[in-house]
Amino acid sequence: MKKGATLVLATSLLIAAPLQQAQASAFEKAKFVFHLGVAAYAFNHWVWQPYRTYKFKQGAPGQRTAVIKAGVALVFAATQVNAAIKMTQNSADPFLKNIGGLLPDLSKTLATVGANLQNGKFDEAGIQKLNTATTNLLDQAQQQGHPIRPVAAPIPGL
What we know:
By secondary structure, the protein is mainly α. It is built from 5 helices and no strands. Helix content is 75%, strand content 0%.
């Protein structure tokens, strides 16, 4: 290979490498936001809205079924949050690191409240804590320029 061709190849690799990294970072962010959007939808649709319309209240029609479905949805949301956590573990991206720092506590709360609901145990304080944590997460992401929008996704069993 000629010296000029080697120089052109080396230059193009130096230019292309950061571009590929930027594209991978954009893809990682999109995937991260998707996982959190699915979790936000599951919480909002299957837990927060029924809670606000008193479907979990003792004596409400279908109360037990609504509570169990909410539990399944929260366990599903916890798996989505855990997938997002895994994405942040080796990332150098400031957004993923900042938002990722909020996720372990959210994941634990989702799993705990979800397991209680799946077993038919209504946990009002846990649901309110989840709403506060979810709102905080969505606000933080919005402030950093990466809004998380709820994404409707099928949840096995619901």
